[in-house]
Amino acid sequence: MVANSGSGATSVWPPRADPLGPIREALPEAEFWTFTPDPEPDLVPEDERARAAADGRASGAAESPTAPDAEPPSLIELFEKAARRAAEVGGALGVCGGDGTVSAAATVAAREGLPLAVLPGRTLNHFAYDLGLETVDDTCRAVTSGEAVAVDLARFTADGAATATATHYVNTFSIGCYPEMVRIRER
User: Fold this and answer.
1) What is d(CA 33, CA 129) in angstroms, rounded to the nearest whole number?
2) How many domains does one find in the chain?
């Protein structure tokens, strides 16, 4: 299970609390990683930025330890690590985040041939809601009972780009002014 603590809210400081408490209780055998992205620098108070750096709360922190000088893993790297582990134990790749995080997880799950467990956790969660997963409990019940549905995974490849660099998505794909309006709404 990978949770993106900044999903849909990279402009929020301080980062939101760990969303995994209820999931940990409902799925005690699951393994968890939390990704914490860098907030937009101009939105973090200067004194808080200095405290965060001193406390070692800078970007990309995962629950699994890394060497002090190591670059924190990216969200995709965490999905890949979690997917490898899920494949080893015959499980699913779990994701808790907004629609963009879910699309990133779906890309990795599809590439690795794994089922994807989507837990609503952040902004509007259109995709989770379309699946009837309005709460974390809804997904946890589906996982423990073995319920699943098949969905379409779409791919966008820029003209001339390699297939390996394609962008996958499960809900919507937007270009133009809509993504900008969403960013403005999030502020």
Assistant:
1) 23
2) 1
